[in-house]
Amino acid sequence: MRLTIIGCGDAFGAGGNLHTSFHVRSSASTFLIDCGASTLIGMRRLGLDPKDIDAVFVTHLHGDHFGGLPWLLLDAQFASKRTRPMIVTGPKGIEARFVKAAEALYPNSTTAKSFKFTFVEYEEQKPLEVGGITVTPFEVKHPSGAPPYALRFSIDGKVVAFTGDTGWIDRLDKVAHGADLFISECFQYDVTLPIHLDYKTIDANYDRLGAKQVLLTHMGEAMLAHVDKVDLSRFMVAQDGMTLDL
Length: 246
Ligand SMILES: [Zn+2]
Ligand SMILES: [Zn+2]
What we know:
Blueprint lengths: L1 E6 L13 E5 L4 E4 L5 H8 L8 E3 L5 H4 L2 H11 L6 E5 L3 H12 L11 E5 L6 E3 L2 E7 L9 E7 L2 E5 L9 H5 L4 E5 L13 H6 L1 H4 L4 E4 L3 H4 L10 E3 L5 E3 L1
Parallel strand pairs: 3-4, 4-5, 5-6, 10-11, 11-12, 12-13
Antiparallel strand pairs: 1-2, 1-14, 2-3, 7-8, 8-9, 9-10
The structure holds zinc ion (2 copies).
The site of one zinc ion has 6 residues, from loops.
């Protein structure tokens, strides 16, 4: 499988990075993990075709993680002229939040679709199979109007886990343990917030997390200002456009 970072940014555009979205091409399907508002632009920059997307796995309902869906729909209807179904998974209430957002931006865009656009809601720690990919959602700590989740994926025999946005909770070791790749948000450097992670906390819990590789993402300005202090024997640092083969 190949993971391409479309966007590794936070909500504030720190460092000029695009909003969060990871593109995964596997033998079973091609999908996005999160779809922040700038995702379609990022895909065009990288030559990734939105027509190839089978599914979108959303961690939580903040615009820098799901706000790109209205443009994905717009592309599917009017540019790509999609006929193949697309599945979006997310927290309870995702469809209503999506419709509200899409209708505010492009009135009537959610009616009369030329393809099946289906939403599936997570149930806590219940594995879900979509397009040959198994994902297990773990509720985390990040108020966003609906339950936020960390996601643990089984893809082509590999495990990829992603925190989404969250403050530290002990459950993260279950999310990360033994993962071939653990993608962790790292909004702060040494300031511990209840709703976001920071480098010092992740580093202090490195052994406990027990992942084979850790990729830091969603870095805010404070973290980017200290990015030279990252222990590169432990961590990889995300950049827009970066690819990883697993
Ligand atoms: Zn975010
Ligand atoms: Zn968020």
